[in-house]
Amino acid sequence: MSDSDKTTSQFEDSQFEKTQLTYMPLKKKEDENNEENKESSSSHTPSSQSSTWYLISVLVLSLLGIIVSAYATHHHLEFKQHGQTSAVCNVNQTVSCDSIAASEYSELLNYPLGIWGLGYFLALFAIALILLPKKPLTFRSEAHYAALISLSLLGVITSLVLASLSFFVIKAVCLTCTMVYVLTLLLGGISIYYMKRHRFPLRLTGTYAPWPGFLSAAILLAITLASFGQLTSKPQESTTQPSTSTIQETEVSKPTKTFKVPNLADEDQAQDIPIAQSPYSQLGEDFRLGSDNAAVQLVEFADFQCAYCASFSSILKEVKEEFGDTVSIVFKNFPLDNSCNSTAGAVHPYACETAQLARCSGILLGKFWEFHDLAYIHQSRIKKEGAKQVAKEFGLSDAQIEECLKSKDILAKIKDDIALGQKLGVQGTPSVFINGRKLTLQSDLNLSAIIQMLLSNEAQKTSTPTTP
Fold first, then answer.
1. Which among 67, 89, 71, 77 has a CA at the least distance from the CA of 172?
2. How confident is the model at residue 158 (pLDDT cuts 50, 70, 90)?
3. pTM recorded for the entire structure
4. Which fold has domain 50-232?
């Protein structure tokens, strides 16, 4: 080989080595990028082993949420029925579940917040339970993961809003509600951690859109609300009220029969309820409608800030219109306000004030029942600003209002009503006694039919000749 040929060959070898050196780093870099893309792609898919701990955590926290929400719903229903409860979460004036249940924020679309929480946690539990055994994941399971994370974050936002209302608007704390807030914050925290660790994208469209999961959650929530509505509206068979026509037919076919009145305690459980009939009584008279000699005497223990007392007052108006003086309706105070009722929390902070001004209107103006109706009409206003302005607009002067609120006699009468109510076993409002017998209040109550039966029984007693 000539010198020129050797030189050419060496040059070509040198160029090939340079090309190889250039190509190898590029290929290595391309391989590294491919590996990184694979890892990044796989990290978006929540099919790794670490998904299991996330789903199990959601299951445990959701189960706790279901239990707490069920208790909160039970407490709300008990408060609706009795006006107050003996729940352990009623610690003092500030830490009080009853205060939260009494607020206008305790329900959404006429459903207690507890049942909404129950549906929410049930949805999280169901989605996590469905996803737990899924390997490999499908399009729908990825969407359900997205829904699970999105719902957890939505729970955090909702809890922050409700907590703000509790602390700054209602100015009371509910321990049960606080437990729900903690659970939602934990769910939100682990969801954010999981999302960041797997770089899980949340999208409005495509594979990671949460809409299929949202649809599943919405269906389960709707079923929960519908079931609650059905259970709470369904009358119990043992206490179903007979219709008026059935009563009349029974009276005609068996005129000598004494009826056992539904919803009313037995006659041997009748209690003596003293009624002050004279304005010159030691503590003043009990305001009442109808004749004092009426065959049926209905005594109501009520709270002017109690929403269910307001509803029941409408029923009493119908009773008065239907039966006139044959029924005596007596009002007694049982405000759920610890400023005059030491056994109650601060459920209704202006209830004692309103009761005092109502009695004052009866004593000074002779218009107790007019103020009674007005106070119920302006419940939301009284809840915010008290009853003084309402009383002033009603006709009491500033001096009369101040004098009434300082009156020891008026306050003593209200406290006497409260003591009597406690002796009779009153635990909430409204509590009603008919001829000394406790009336069980429920949604299907037919008070008119009950009174008709009692009047028939009384008529039968007076018409039946005594045996010598």
1. 89
2. very high
3. 0.56
4. de novo design (two linked rop proteins) (1.20.1440)
